[in-house]
Design a protein that fits this description.
This protein is 72% helix and 0% strand. By secondary structure, the chain is an all-alpha fold. The chain has a domain of 143 residues: Tetracycline Repressor, domain 2. Helix 2 packs across helix 3 and helix 7 packs across helix 8. The protein is elongated.
Length: 216
């Protein structure tokens, strides 16, 4: 029982650390959030902090995982397992998260840098980014396919491909935004959704009536 209690305390401490570190990284960014500063923020030594996470890279990976958990709970609702199949709800939630990202530049910086480093299969965040991307595309594909079937979204692009495009646009915009913070990431993604929404002019024109010569 004592061992189980100790484990529960360890899990609770990890959660407490991650919640505090989200604020530190959001404020200080990847470069400014050293192990020393992160440890001091939660009242631990550097060795004490790494006792819970192993390495700085593993700590940063768990911070990103915690960020996703917090965002999902806030923008989708803790009890929802899948986003609503209506792409309008997907669009609203996605744009809310993108707007929120512009308020936490340090976390955007951490995500973008870790995404590049995680291309190495040996990196601690490699499996996290693979699983995260696959889950995101699966949810997007589900919502986009439904909206294509009901005519609310262009069907010229397969839903799985379209899900990858949306993911790539958002990730690429984050890099551009770090270079130029005046970029309106949410506005650009919103414009992309507009471009993918069919309009009356997208409907095929009716066939012309046959000319008198054709009847003759």
């Amino acid at each position: 029982m004592a061992q189980r209690g100790s484990y529960a305390k360890g899990v609770a401490k990890r959660e407490e650390i991650l919640e505090r570190e989200l604020d530190v990284v959001a404020r200080e960014g990847y470069r400014g959030a050293s192990v020393k500063e992160l440890a001091e923020a939660v009242g631990l030594s550097q060795a004490g902090l790494l006792h819970y996470f192993g390495t700085k890279e593993e700590l940063f990976t768990e911070i990103l995982r915690k960020r996703d958990e917090v965002d999902i709970a806030h923008y989708r609702g803790e009890t929802s397992e899948k986003p609503d199949s209506d792409v309008r709800d997907l669009r609203t939630g996605y744009l809310q998260i993108i707007r929120h990202n512009s308020e936490v530049p340090g976390l955007v910086q951490l995500f973008s840098r870790m995404a590049v480093d995680a291309a190495d299969p040996e990196h601690p965040a490699h499996s996290f980014f693979l699983a995260r991307g696959a889950e995101l595309r699966d949810e997007f594909t589900h919502a986009l396919a439904h909206q294509q079937r009901t005519g609310g979204l262009t069907d010229r692009i397969a839903p799985g491909t379209l899900a990858r495009i949306l993911q790539a646009v958002a990730d690429g915009l984050q890099v551009q935004w770090m270079q130029d913070p005046t970029i309106d990431m949410a506005g650009i993604v919103n414009a992309l959704f507009d471009a993918l929404t069919p309009t009356p002019s997208d409907e095929p024109a009716p066939a012309p009536a046959p000319s008198p010569e054709e009847h003759g």
